[in-house]
């Protein structure tokens, strides 16, 4: 296996673990990511679409499905009524915090078979990758990470 192949399989391992955690909360990975993205503050739909690499239409459909469960809500921006803001409902915020905490606790399990030094190296490299990646929206420095 070459380096790219290993990174591909690492992404599969991470996505599988994330999907398992999300399923335990009766959420799709996309719904969980959306909730975590708006758990602390409302976000502009256009910025969310860009941050999550989704078309506006795909994001709107995801928001519709998540709003039907009363986990998120839309509102017009106070500054510009054309701008749609998305925020977590109180129930959505509680669920997002629970998902976020569980992901933060259990995702590191993917490295459980590494020795302590390798686990520290893995954490250091993962941190460096995230810190040098463009994961924030154009108007916020808050990373979109569950």
Automatic annotation (TrEMBL):
SMART domains: HTH_MARR. GO terms for molecular function: DNA binding; DNA-binding transcription factor activity. PROSITE patterns: HTH_MARR_2 (PS50995). Transmembrane segments: none annotated. Keywords: DNA-binding. InterPro entries: HTH_MarR-typ (IPR000835), MarR/SlyA-like (IPR039422), WH-like_DNA-bd_sf (IPR036388), WH_DNA-bd_sf (IPR036390). GO terms for biological process: response to stress. It comes from the Bacteria. This is DNA-binding MarR family transcriptional regulator. The lineage of its organism: Bacteria, Bacillati, Actinomycetota, Actinomycetes, Kitasatosporales.
């Amino acid at each position: 296996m070459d380096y790219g192949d290993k990174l591909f399989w690492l992404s599969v391992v991470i996505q599988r673990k994330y999907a398992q955690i999300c399923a335990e909360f009766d959420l799709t990975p996309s719904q969980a990511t959306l909730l975590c993205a708006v758990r602390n503050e409302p976000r502009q739909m256009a910025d969310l679409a860009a941050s999550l690499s989704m078309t506006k239409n795909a994001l709107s459909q995801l928001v519709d499905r998540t709003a039907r469960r009363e986990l998120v809500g839309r509102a017009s921006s106070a500054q510009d009524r054309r701008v749609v803001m998305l925020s977590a409902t109180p129930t959505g915020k509680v669920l997002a915090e629970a998902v976020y905490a569980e992901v933060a606790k259990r995702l590191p399990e993917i490295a459980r078979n590494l020795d302590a030094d390798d686990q520290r190296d893995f954490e250091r490299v993962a941190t460096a990758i995230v810190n040098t990646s463009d994961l924030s929206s154009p108007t916020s420095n808050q990373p979109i990470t569950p």
